[in-house]
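ok so I'm stuck.
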Amino acid sequence: MGAGAAMPLMAASAFMSLQAAQTQARGLQAQGAYAKLQAKQESLKYKQNAVAVLDNILATSATITAKAAMGGVDPFSGSAKALRDYAVSKGAQELYTLQEGEIIALAGGRMQAQQYASQARAARQAGIASAIGSLGYGLQMQQSIGGPGGTTP
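replied:
not stuck anymore, here's the structure
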């Protein structure tokens, strides 16, 4: 291979390294965006379940109140109140658990997206390093065989 052909080939190799790194980085960024989307979908499921829990709390409380009133008992005191308070307490515990699950799902998605972003940055840096290495090698090769910039007498 002549001195004139080495540098254009190395430049093409460097360009292709950069292009490959950019493509890989874009793919990783897309995976990060998808991880965020999945986390958001998971958090919406938790919210949907939380709404169902709230509906259940209201329905249970209404049922207890109605049955106590039908039985001639004051629904807002005594056993009826204690039963309603217990049902609300258990529902609230379930609701808090769902809310924590939502927070964990969103945080997990953010962490995964950050990890993909970090991998994308590393891929870009590796591509730049590879391109610089290819150009440096081409320049060294060109100088060693006496091409432009060489030190031939």
